[in-house]
């Protein structure tokens, strides 16, 4: 695999081994970049058409965020009022950028920070702030302006209070009267702490109607999570945003947790259809035909083995593991196995582990994947938050009922 340094040398030498071709794809970033081809084979780099900068790019690993960030900076028009210092030419910063990369690498390695932190827009704003201070004040020690963690935490509290007031002016104080509210409990598996997250949804009627949503809180819940505790947290959260419950209408959507059902028994409360679909499928997997339960269990064990043995990298696409609480994961697991079944069988034969696929029939698995696909599409369409989905529930319910009815011409699973 060619390195960036070697590629830069070839480009500088105008080597005929290097060819540039317009990057193809649907992302809006691609139209500003050229794919780099070396010795008739694409490499994991693209070149900006404007500044000729080389960027590492692998759609499976990096996505297009880096390209979009670079495009926004490189192709955006400079504000005429922005003063450009006489030394601010990118060509003069080659050594500084290299040294900065070394310092960031040391920081990420020593303090266990993600390399991707440098791609964050917030990181860029902080860096620009330091540059502006230096341009205004001259040489300054970083220690003179850096603040403590405690100071940062106080500012987070201040900014949160300001944001709450800002949002209250948008949908509090009677400015909106109809809301949808979704909430759920979840657990931090690392420390077993329990949290509740509350999100509010409404249609902004001013101008063109637009659905909007805001996360009102993600709050640590200590002690028992009873229905009464849940309802009190909801009321306290509404008060923080100046939402007057007695003047508004709410529809709550949650899963089937008994504490949520109990806490919202006096409110307009709907059970999330996607959770209900997932529960129905889990019941089918656990209490349905024996062959289906056996297929799911053997598939889970197969995926676990490939992950544990480090065999994933030998497949064209990775195997997906099933998780009872995540929607459609049985579908994705079986689909990933079907797509790789020939390679899986070959690898297991090499590893002398063919017993792990004995009893798994790829044709039977294809039939189950085909059966589950309408459930996957239904849960995807019904879990949207940018458009109303309530009107889709009954049509999808009827469609899935038809899917579950035996069809005379439908092939049977055979063993």
Amount of helix: 40-55%
Q: What value does the average pLDDT take?
A: 87
The number of helical elements comes to: 14
CA-atom Rg in angstroms: 28 Å
In spatial order, strands of the major sheet run: 7-6-5-8-9
Strand content: 15-25%
The N- and C-terminal alpha carbons lie at a distance of 46 Å
| Largest sheet, strands/sense/barrel | 5 strands, mixed
Secondary-structure element order, as H and E? HEEEEHHHHHEEEHEHEHHHHHH
Quantity of strands, as a count: 9
Any low-confidence stretches, pLDDT <50, length ≥5? 78-83, 86-91
Decide which structural class fits the backbone. Answer: alpha+beta
Give the overall shape: globular
Question: What key attributes describe this structure?
Answer:
single chain, 415 residues, alpha+beta, 5-stranded mixed β-sheet, 47% helix, globular
Kindly describe this structure.
This protein is of the alpha+beta class and 415 residues long. It contains 14 helices and 9 strands. The strands form 2 sheets. The chain has a 5-stranded mixed beta sheet with strand order 7-6-5-8-9. It starts with a helix and ends in an 11-residue tail after the last helix.
